[in-house]
Design brief:
single chain; Rossmann fold
């Protein structure tokens, strides 16, 4: 038999075998899948997260895949959304908000979880400590221990005669104690009372809040201003809240990142500062870091924004000293 012929046949067979092997390897190569749990629906935040992953070198569909899950304002759906991501065995879960983070932690003790928009991750039972979270959870918080006190002080500076204040919150946020108040609500009530103010916490419930009932309660309580907390329902309906309050001549204070709501004042830290950090932490985990060893990051940059147009509509004036300190004045 011709030796050259045998050699050609062997080489052809070897080539086919290698190509098949490579094809199988390509088909079975697993790319990381990232679950994302959102309180609302599809929007710019998820796209921003994808872009930030791209900045780290990840290519969607080639080197990473995303599994977003949307509660559509029904926060009670988070446990089923978390369970779905656990069934998919995703490589990490990014959660936006306390209800999503709590549901994810309840659903798995193995899949890494990276949270944001959580006011107090220790009080919520997500981590053991900020420096050493332990377990499978870490993340970012724009928790500013002084924010409640600073906001109340600013309100008193702007409105010296202020006595009664409505604190607008969300009925679905977790962590309520025997008084029915969640950590963020308790801290604001304490800060108000420390300045001699009379606070009244009013809770909206999504996805279709009873605004008529909420503002009727404010009126009956004689509220003279509204502090809007950074909670899911107010993030969705901030602009409507500001419009309703302004129509009733109630000045509003929103968190620092919510100038688009058009309240009179926006002051404090902003959750928007947390978005770019989420993919960076997830990247560390995908490369082998343990979530429990990654300290929880705290966002501390405060913003002060004054909307003079809304102030005029609400019939209030802003002291010159406060305007001078503002990072931005909308006229």
């Amino acid at each position: 038999m011709n030796i050259g012929y045998i050699a050609r046949v062997f080489l052809a067979f070897l080539g086919i075998t290698l190509s098949c092997g490579i094809g199988v390897a390509q088909q079975t190569t697993k790319i990381p899948r990232i679950g994302i749990m959102v309180n609302g629906g599809p929007g710019p935040v998820v796209e921003a997260l994808k872009n930030d992953f791209a900045q780290l070198g990840y290519v969607e569909g080639q080197t990473i895949a995303f599994e977003p899950r949307y509660a559509q304002g029904q926060l009670g759906r988070h446990p089923e959304l978390a369970a779905d991501l656990v069934r998919l065995d995703v490589d990490a879960i990014l959660t936006l908000g306390g209800p999503a983070a709590r549901a994810a932690k309840d659903a798995t003790s193995k899949i890494p979880i990276v949270f944001s928009i959580v006011t107090d991750p220790i009080a919520l039972g997500l981590v053991a400590s900020m420096d050493r979270p332990g377990g499978n959870v870490t993340g970012l918080t724009n928790l500013d221990p002084q924010q409640a006190a600073r906001q109340m002080e600013l309100l008193k500076e702007v409105f010296p005669a202020l006595k009664r204040i409505a604190i607008l919150s969300d009925a679905d946020i977790p962590g309520a104690d025997a008084s029915g108040l969640a950590p963020i609500e308790r801290s604001n009530v304490a800060a108000a009372r420390a300045l001699g103010l009379e606070p009244r916490v009013i809770k909206l419930k999504g996805p279709t809040p009873d605004f008529d009932g909420a503002f009727a309660a404010m009126k009956s309580e004689g509220a003279e201003a509204v502090l809007v907390l950074e909670v899911p329902v107010t993030l969705v309906h901030g602009k409507l809240i500001a419009e309703r309050a302004t129509a009733q001549r109630l000045p509003t204070m929103f968190p620092g990142g919510q100038k688009s709501a058009d309240g009179v004042i926006a002051y404090g830290t902003t959750v928007a500062d947390t978005w770019p950090r989420l993919p960076i932490i997830a990247d560390r985990i995908l490369k082998g870091a343990r979530p429990g060893d990654i300290p929880v990051e705290a966002i501390s940059r405060r913003q002060l924004i004054i909307n003079l147009k809304t102030a005029r509509e609400a019939g209030v004036s802003i002291p010159a000293g406060v305007l001078a300190r503002a990072d931005e004045v909308i006229r």
